[in-house]
C-alpha cells in the first residue's frame, strides 16, 4: 500500500507539472523571503506538490557525481534544441551551412537523438550506482514499471508516426511546416504526448530498477519538459499564425 501511495504522489507531482505547475502567473509571489511581485516570466513553483520527492530524497545519495551528471544532461538537452532551433529560425545559420533546411534538420535531429541516448545512459548509470529501495523491489512494482514503459513507448512512437520525422525534430524552426494540426491519436488523448510518454518511460525504468534516484530524475525530466513547453508552445503557435496570415494575403 505504501508503494502505491508514493507512486500516486509522484504521478500527482507530474500531473501538477503538466497542468500548470510551471505556468506563469502575475499573482504576487508569496514564498517567505522572496516577497516580490510576480511577473509573466516567473514560474509558480508553489503549485507543485513535492511531498513525495522530499520523502524519496531520504534514500538518495546527493553527493554522487553520476546523479548530478544525469541532472545536467537532462537540463541541457531541451535547452540545447530550443536555443539552436531559435537561432536557426531567426538566422537560417544551419540551413546556409548545410545548403538547405532538410540536411540541416537531419544534422540537428542526429545530435538530438545522440543526446537523448546519452541522457538515458546517464540516468541508467545513476540508478545502478545507488542502492535499490526495498519498498520498490518486488515483482508487482517491476511489472508496473513494464506497463508504464509500454504505455510511454506507445505515446512516443505514435507521436513520431503522426508528426513524421520533420514534425518531430523541429521542422517548424527550419521553415518546414505541416499542412494542418494533428488532432488524431495520441494528440486526442493528451497534449505533448511524446514528452509525457518519454517521462512515463523514465518512471517505468525507475520502478523496474527499484530506484529512488530514478524517481527523482523522472521528476527532473518532467520539470524540464514543462519549462521547454512554456517556450516551445507559444513559439510554434506564432509560426503557424504567421503561415496562416501569409496564406490569406496571397
Automatic annotation (TrEMBL):
Span of the signal peptide: 1-17
Major subcellular location class: endoplasmic reticulum
EC class name: transferase
GO molecular function annotation: phosphatidyl-N-methylethanolamine N-methyltransferase activity; phosphatidylethanolamine N-methyltransferase activity
Subcellular locations according to the entry: Endoplasmic reticulum membrane; Mitochondrion membrane
GO cellular component terms listed in the entry, alphabetical order: endoplasmic reticulum membrane; mitochondrial membrane
Membrane-topology descriptor: Multi-pass membrane protein
Listed GO biological process terms: methylation; phosphatidylcholine biosynthetic process
Residues that, per the record, bind S-adenosyl-L-methionine: 150-152, 232-233
Residue ranges that the UniProt entry lists as topological domain Cytoplasmic: 119-145, 231-250
Pathway given in the UniProt record: Lipid metabolism; Phospholipid metabolism; phosphatidylcholine biosynthesis
Intramembrane residue ranges: 65-85
PROSITE patterns xrefs: SAM_PEMT_PEM2 (PS51599)
Segments crossing the lipid bilayer: 67-87, 99-119, 140-163, 202-225
Keywords: Endoplasmic reticulum, Lipid biosynthesis, Lipid metabolism, Membrane, Methyltransferase, Mitochondrion, Phospholipid biosynthesis, Phospholipid metabolism, S-adenosyl-L-methionine, Signal, Transferase, Transmembrane, Transmembrane helix
Gene3D superfamilies reported for this sequence: 1.20.120.1630
Enzyme Commission number(s) of this protein: 2.1.1.17, 2.1.1.71
Cross-referenced InterPro entries: PEMT/MFAP (IPR024960), Phopholipid_MeTrfase (IPR007318)
Catalysis: reaction(s): 1,2-di-(9Z,12Z,15Z-octadecatrienoyl)-sn-glycero-3-phosphoethanolamine + S-adenosyl-L-methionine = 1,2-di-(9Z,12Z,15Z-octadecatrienoyl)-sn-glycero-3-phospho-N-methylethanolamine + S-adenosyl-L-homocysteine + H(+); 1,2-di-(9Z,12Z,15Z-octadecatrienoyl)-sn-glycero-3-phospho-N,N-dimethylethanolamine + S-adenosyl-L-methionine = 1,2-di-(9Z,12Z,15Z-octadecatrienoyl)-sn-glycero-3-phosphocholine + S-adenosyl-L-homocysteine + H(+); 1,2-di-(9Z,12Z-octadecadienoyl)-sn-glycero-3-phosphoethanolamine + S-adenosyl-L-methionine = 1,2-di-(9Z,12Z-octadecadienoyl)-sn-glycero-3-phospho-N-methylethanolamine + S-adenosyl-L-homocysteine + H(+); 1,2-di-(9Z-octadecenoyl)-sn-glycero-3-phosphoethanolamine + S-adenosyl-L-methionine = 1,2-di-(9Z-octadecenoyl)-sn-glycero-3-phospho-N-methylethanolamine + S-adenosyl-L-homocysteine + H(+)
Lumenal side: 1-64, 86-97, 167-209
Similarity comment: family membership: Belongs to the class VI-like SAM-binding methyltransferase superfamily. PEMT/PEM2 methyltransferase family.
Stated role: Catalyzes the three sequential steps of the methylation pathway for the biosynthesis of phosphatidylcholine, a critical and essential component for membrane structure.
UniProt protein name: Phosphatidylethanolamine N-methyltransferase
Amino acid at each position: 500500500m505504501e508503494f502505491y501511495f508514493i507512486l500516486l504522489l509522484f504521478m500527482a507531482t507530474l500531473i501538477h507539472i503538466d497542468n500548470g505547475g510551471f505556468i506563469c502567473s502575475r499573482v504576487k509571489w508569496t514564498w517567505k523571503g522572496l516577497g516580490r511581485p510576480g511577473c509573466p516570466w516567473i514560474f509558480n513553483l508553489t503549485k507543485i506538490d513535492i511531498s513525495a520527492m522530499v520523502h524519496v530524497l531520504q534514500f538518495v545519495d546527493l553527493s554522487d557525481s553520476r546523479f548530478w551528471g544525469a541532472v545536467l544532461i537532462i537540463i541541457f538537452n531541451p535547452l540545447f534544441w530550443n536555443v539552436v532551433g531559435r537561432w536557426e529560425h531567426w538566422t537560417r545559420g544551419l540551413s546556409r551551412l548545410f545548403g538547405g533546411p532538410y540536411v540541416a534538420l537531419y544534422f540537428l535531429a542526429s545530435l538530438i537523438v545522440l543526446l537523448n541516448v546519452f541522457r538515458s545512459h546517464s540516468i541508467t548509470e545513476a540508478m545502478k550506482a545507488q542502492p535499490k529501495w526495498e519498498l520498490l523491489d518486488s515483482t508487482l512494482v517491476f511489472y508496473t514499471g513494464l506497463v508504464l514503459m509500454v504505455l510511454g513507448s506507445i505515446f512516443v512512437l505514435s507521436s513520431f508516426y503522426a508528426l513524421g520525422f520533420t514534425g518531430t525534430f523541429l521542422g517548424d524552426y527550419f521553415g518546414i511546416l505541416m499542412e494542418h494540426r494533428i488532432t488524431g491519436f495520441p494528440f486526442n488523448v493528451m497534449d505533448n504526448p511524446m514528452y509525457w510518454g518519454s517521462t512515463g518511460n523514465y518512471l517505468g525504468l525507475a520502478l523496474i530498477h527499484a530506484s529512488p534516484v530514478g524517481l527523482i530524475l523522472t521528476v527532473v525530466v518532467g520539470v524540464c519538459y514543462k519549462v521547454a513547453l512554456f517556450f516551445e508552445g507559444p513559439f510554434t503557435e506564432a509560426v503557424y499564425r504567421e503561415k496562416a496570415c501569409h496564406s490569406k494575403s496571397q
